[in-house]
């Protein structure tokens, strides 16, 4: 296999809060290859968004990257001077966010927001940048792009705005796009359109995609590979079909079980008992142990290490028995 | 900001709690201590001042415009210098502080009572009365206080009493607005409903139920307004439309020194100015602290 | 839109009428300017003559009726002292005051916004804390005293700048202005700075809280993710967003600056209409006082209208609503 476009190794991100230091991301390692779609799944507070922001170097105080390594196309990003990091942002790696209503600046026209992106990275004329911006809008399926360029964000619908954001992110044909729940705030029909468009655009350009979501259904249709996060750690990782069909980690198992589509009508909805633990005081062993149906005594002594099996891996002492179909 | 629930039927413990909150920050002791000191100086100015600056018999024109630290003809030391009539600046400042604080406190006190009453009344009456009063408040607050005070004093003429009346008219609207805003919230609360159900007389509902609950924000506004009133009085007196020459406030003293500023006799204006600044800053610090304690929502 | 406009103008006229009544009654009801204007040795007959010439012998309501009638014809009375139309005197002095107020407004923006944005970007830095303490002082200290201290420092001690008065003027579109020459500007610097401090404190607070709010917004994070330089993010993305409320409020404050110029002009012996007002109050020159106040009321009302229009021009969301509604 060729070298990964993005390679994260043992990333740790901490937030200094009044209750002490919180480890939002605790030893995450990931590889993403060219043209690949990775689904990064977890509940809110699991550290998936923080992981995404760390890649772009957008962690603000009180947060900080405590240790680890993030390599983009071989370049180490951690410790890179801010100015060099800035040049990589938008050019080699891009990010889109959850709420399209707020990601675009309300007082700047669409053309301003697009052209400034190109001119931040390339010394091109305003006219050339404008025609590229128009081209980009057309690619994401926006009708009459030349007119849309002259509008303000509030004149566009939510779906349109997210398309504009995607167009901006892909303007420089980055090697990596981090999408942080970009469809959660949209209607279901528009959601699937946008997912299809992003998927197509990325495969055309070979852009690797990290799709951050809490929605397994989205990942099932989109991702090549999946990584499930819980309490700042990746608890299970692998190709999407085997993981979703035969999850080994009890948490993935529970997540799949609690998806409404996997429950029969009239039956009580399956759910994971208990609540997401507070990151400020995690149990000493496996963070999931207190909620886990499979937990045994040793689960609360030390955090489990990674168990590899071919292309997949999980972090559990007592995994779900193989081949137990959840569907 | 506190997790301790307020026990509303035991007013005394509530206020005691607030006092201990007020002093939770060590700097509060300093500002509060300075405020008390200033008030004591102002009240007892005739006793602490080295001379009575308005007793012409004690003044010697030969001592005029002496720089700070000079000796008088009969051997006394003028620590802060003298003005053109040979008046000891330190004494003049102590007396001036007395007048400035008096004007500030008295005008604020009456403005607060009048404004709050109008505000509560408007909020309680509702309807046309309320909208008329609030229109009036908005209209007045849309013009700068200094302008209104100038018009009034141009009409009234000079005098301590006239300045106080002008400042009351300038300030009442702040209180009316503060109280009305609070009363709007309070009048829909359950205890108001209960008071109405008990068929308590209207005046009793107004003054023993509604007003006490509007008190904390009122105290905060009033404290800061004392500082504003003092600054405004000083400005008016500096412009020559405030207090008369015979009862000089700090602002008047600064005006007197203004003519000598160009010739480098800085002390006649500078020291009264510093006293004024000190008074205003101290009152503002206490006001800020009160705001933190009494109304966490107002604090930025 | 048209109904809104008519209602707004109607309100404005009502405010002007109400203020005219209040001003007239409070100014004309008290004092007797004849005492000041007449020769101290004048006998009763002479006094009555002067009184009749000035129209002061008529009953108050008749004086008011005459005042309103004349005001509608643009005549706000003749100055008792200068024996010239009061309005003319005010308008003669107006360019000086407007120049002072505008220069001060611009100064307060150029002082206040950079400091406020800085304090908003680095809220915990000692420099930011210093800025905020300074703005509290700017809010609460009496402005005239700051002016005096500036005179003491820059005019008396350092002798860099003149202590007062207005510098040489040049004509710009028929209006006498002094900011075009260095010598004229030198006279303007201290008074304008003093007047600016009065508002700069407000601008600092507004831009600080605006910046603190803006940097947490998604659009700033997205702008960073696009790889924009921090300079562009602050100067374009943040600044343009915080400018809207600041311009609105400052526009409204221009009126209060013109009013507050009364104090600054007195401190710096600056020959604007504020100084004229104070002199006229001292001389009981009622028509001038009334003319000044009416002028300021009209300026206030006009500014309110202009600010609404500017607001619409700056904020595209407002513009859209208006074109739709």
Q: Which class best fits the helix and strand makeup of chain C?
A: mainly alpha
Order of helices and strands of chain B: HHHEEHHHHHHHH
Q: Give a short account of the largest sheet of chain C.
A: 2 strands, antiparallel
Order of helices and strands of chain C: HHHHHHHEEHHHHHH
Broad shape of chain C: globular
Which spans of chain C have pLDDT < 50 for at least 5 consecutive residues? 320-325
**Largest contact between chains:** B-C, 39 and 43 residues
Strand order of the largest sheet of chain B: 1-2
Q: Tell me the number of helical segments of chain B per DSSP (H or I, 4 or more residues long).
A: 11
Which outline of chain B best applies?
elongated
| Secondary structure category of chain B | mainly alpha
Residue windows where pLDDT falls under 50 for at least 5 positions of chain B? 1-10
Q: Roughly how many Å is the radius of gyration of chain B?
A: 23 Å
Number of helices of chain C: 13
> Helical percent range of chain C?
over 70%
Oligomer: heterotrimer
Euclidean distance between termini CA atoms of chain B: 13 Å
Strand content of chain C: under 5%
Entry keywords:
B: 300 residues, two-stranded antiparallel ribbon, 11 helices, disordered N terminus, C: 325 residues, mainly alpha, 2 strands
Account of the protein in words:
- The complex is a heterotrimer of chains A (327), B (300) and C (325).
- Chain A is of the alpha/beta class and 327 residues long.
- Chain A contains eleven helices and twelve strands.
- The model of chain B is unreliable at 1-10 (pLDDT under 50).
- With 325 residues, chain C is an all-alpha fold.
- Chain C is built from 13 helices and two strands.
- In chain C, strands 1-2 form a two-stranded antiparallel sheet.
- In chain C, helix 5 crosses helix 12 (286-314) and helix 6 (126-140) crosses helix 8.
- Chain C starts with a helix and ends with a helix.
- Classes of the chains: A alpha/beta (327), B mainly alpha (300), C mainly alpha (325).
- At the B-C interface, helix 6, helix 9, helix 10 and helix 11 of B face helix 1, helix 6, helix 7, helix 10 and helix 11 of C.
């Amino acid at each position: 296999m060729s070298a990964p476009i993005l390679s994260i190794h043992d990333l740790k991100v901490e937030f200094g809060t009044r209750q002490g230091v919180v480890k939002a991301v605790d030893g995450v390692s990931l590889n993403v290859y060219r043209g690949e779609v990775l689904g990064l799944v977890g509940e809110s507070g699991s550290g998936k968004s923080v992981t995404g922001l760390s890649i772009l170097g957008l962690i603000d105080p009180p947060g900080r990257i405590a240790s680890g390594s993030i390599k983009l196309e071989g370049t180490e990003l951690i410790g890179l001077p801010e100015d060099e990091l800035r040049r990589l942002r938008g050019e080699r790696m891009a990010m889109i966010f959850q709420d399209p209503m707020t990601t675009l600046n309300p007082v700047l026209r669409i053309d301003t927001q697009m052209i400034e992106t190109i001119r931040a990275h390339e010394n091109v004329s305003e006219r050339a940048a404008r025609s590229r911006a128009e081209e980009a809008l057309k690619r994401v399926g926006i009708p009459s792009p030349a007119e849309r360029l002259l509008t303000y964000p509030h004149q566009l619908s939510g779906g349109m705005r997210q398309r504009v954001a995607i167009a901006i992110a892909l303007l420089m044909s980055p090697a990596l796009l981090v999408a942080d729940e970009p469809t959660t705030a949209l209607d279901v029909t528009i959601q699937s359109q946008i997912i299809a468009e992003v998927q197509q655009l990325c495969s055309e350009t070979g852009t690797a995609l990290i799709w951050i979501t809490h929605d397994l259904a989205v990942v099932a249709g989109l991702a090549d590979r999946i990584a499930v996060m819980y309490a700042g750690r990746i608890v299970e990782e692998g190709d999407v079909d085997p993981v979703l069909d035969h999850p080994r980690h009890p948490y993935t198992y529970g997540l799949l079980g609690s998806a409404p589509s996997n429950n029969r009508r009239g039956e009580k909805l399956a759910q994971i008992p208990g609540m997401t633990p507070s990151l400020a005081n995690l149990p000493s062993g496996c963070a999931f142990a207190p909620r886990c149906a499979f937990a045994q005594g040793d689960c609360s002594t030390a955090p489990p290490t990674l168990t590899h099996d071919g292309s997949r891996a999980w972090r559990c002492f007592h995994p779900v028995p193989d081949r137990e179909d959840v569907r | 900001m506190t997790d301790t629930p307020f026990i509303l039927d035991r007013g005394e413990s509530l206020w005691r709690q607030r006092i201990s909150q007020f002093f939770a920050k060590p700097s509060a002791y300093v500002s509060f201590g300075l405020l008390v000191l200033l008030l004591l100086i102002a009240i007892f100015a005739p006793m602490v001042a080295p001379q009575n600056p308005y007793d012409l018999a004690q003044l010697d024109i030969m001592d005029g415009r002496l720089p700070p630290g000079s000796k008088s003809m009969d051997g006394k030391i003028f620590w802060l210098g003298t003005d053109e009539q040979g008046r000891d600046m330190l004494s003049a400042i102590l007396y001036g502080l007395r007048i400035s604080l008096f004007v500030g406190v008295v005008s604020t006190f009456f403005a607060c009572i009048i404004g709050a009453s109008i505000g509560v009344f408007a909020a309680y009456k509702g309807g046309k009365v309320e909208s008329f009063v609030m229109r009036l408040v908005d209209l007045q607050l849309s013009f700068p206080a200094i302008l209104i005070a100038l018009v009034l004093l141009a009409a009234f003429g000079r005098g301590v009493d006239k300045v106080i009346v002008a400042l009351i008219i300038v300030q009442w609207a702040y209180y009316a607005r503060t109280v009305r805003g609070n009363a709007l919230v309070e009048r829909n609360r359950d205890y108001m409903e209960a008071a109405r159900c008990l068929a308590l007389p209207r005046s009793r509902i107004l003054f023993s139920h509604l007003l006490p609950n509007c008190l904390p924000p009122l105290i905060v506004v009033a404290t800061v307004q004392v500082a504003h009133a003092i600054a405004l009085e000083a400005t008016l007196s500096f412009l020559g439309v405030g207090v008369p020459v015979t009862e000089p406030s700090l602002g008047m003293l600064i005006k007197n020194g203004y003519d000598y500023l160009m010739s480098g006799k800085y002390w006649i204006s500078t020291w009264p100015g510093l006293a004024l600044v000190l008074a205003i800053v101290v009152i503002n610090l206490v006001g800020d602290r009160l705001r933190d304690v009494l109304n966490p929502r107002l604090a930025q | 839109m048209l109904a809104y406009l008519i209602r707004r103008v109607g309100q404005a006229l009502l405010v002007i009428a109400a203020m005219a009544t209040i001003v007239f009654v409070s100014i004309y009801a008290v004092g007797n300017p004849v005492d000041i204007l007449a020769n101290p040795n004048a006998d009763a007959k002479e006094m009555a003559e002067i009184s009749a010439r000035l129209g002061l012998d008529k009953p108050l309501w008749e004086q008011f009726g005459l005042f309103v009638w004349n005001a509608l014809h643009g005549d706000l009375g003749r100055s008792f002292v200068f024996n010239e139309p009061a309005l003319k005197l005010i308008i003669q002095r107006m360019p000086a005051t407007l120049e002072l107020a505008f220069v001060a407004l611009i100064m307060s923006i150029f002082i206040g916004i950079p400091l406020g944005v800085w304090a908003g970007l680095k809220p915990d830095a000692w420099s930011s804390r210093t800025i905020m303490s300074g703005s509290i002082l700017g809010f609460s200290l009496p402005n005239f005293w700051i002016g005096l201290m500036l005179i003491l420092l820059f005019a008396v001690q350092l002798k860099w700048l003149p202590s007062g008065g207005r510098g040489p003027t040049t004509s710009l579109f028929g209006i006498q202005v002094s900011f075009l020459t260095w010598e004229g500007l030198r006279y303007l610097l201290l008074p304008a700075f003093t007047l600016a401090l009065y508002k700069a404190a407000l601008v600092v607070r507004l831009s600080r809280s605006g910046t603190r709010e803006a940097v947490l917004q998604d659009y700033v994070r997205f702008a960073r993710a696009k790889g924009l330089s921090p300079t562009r993010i602050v100067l374009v993305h943040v600044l343009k967003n915080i400018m809207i409320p600041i311009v609105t409020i400052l526009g409204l404050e221009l009126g209060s600056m013109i009013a507050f110029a009364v104090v600054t002009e007195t401190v710096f012996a600056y020959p604007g209409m504020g100084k004229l007002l104070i002199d006229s109050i001292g001389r009981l020159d009622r028509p001038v006082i009334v003319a000044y106040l009416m002028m300021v009321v009209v300026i206030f009302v006009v500014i309110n209208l202009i600010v609404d229009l500017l607001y619409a021009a700056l904020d595209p969301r407002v513009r859209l609503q208006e074109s739709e509604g």
